[in-house]
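Good day; I would like, with your permission, to put a structural problem before you. A protein sequence and the structure tokens that stand for its backbone fold form the material at issue. The record follows directly beneath this note:
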Amino acid sequence: MSPYDPSAFPAFAVTVDLVVLTVRRHALCALVVRRGEPPFQGRWALPGGFVRADEDLAEAAARELTEETGLCAHDPVSPAPGNAAHLEQLATYGDPGRDPRMRVVSVAHLALSPDLPAPRAGGDANSARWAPVDALLNQEGGFAREDEQPAQLAFDHARILADGVERARSKIEYSSLATAFCPSEFTVGELRRVYEAVWGVVLDPRNFHRKVTGTPGFLVPSGGTTTRQGGRPAQLFRAGGATVLNPPMLRPEV
């Protein structure tokens, strides 16, 4: 008989939490849900949920992403279809007191996509919304609307959100991840506004154009033009095959 006794060890649960980022109205925004059940009932939180017994972490994160946004996850080294989002594992959070219900370890994931649809609440959430990350991370994770007071995000989600935002900010320096915020075909100006929104800076248009078009494999002309931004027709590009940028797009010091 095996000496192993499962009852001798305390039970704990595993969850996935999602930092879902998009650019809306030229601002970097994150998806948050208002919790409809204890603990932290009525507080805003990142979307997520418990990992089911028959799924691995990637499957759980993809399921939660679909339930909250209607998007599917795609392989980060392959082009994303129109209804897919970049999804990658962010970090693991296991402070013993992070969840008052029991010992819960959360494996957070980062999701990025352009033009995300209006969010819909699911699971134990009773509403969902997009909010600028600067507002969410101010006042220790609080933000306010006209009808509510600022309040800290539930659990340790302010820390998880901050880690996800910093991951996105750093990765667009040396990888082509910024194109995950763009439609399949985009202008250099639209890509520049992604960098400006994620980094929170204003970039020189001419210098930016020279850098991104001169970086091997970063952008590929699609052959078309658009006037959707107003003014003269602008050349359309799509993401090239490069996943690592050389030279990198260094973040300006602020």
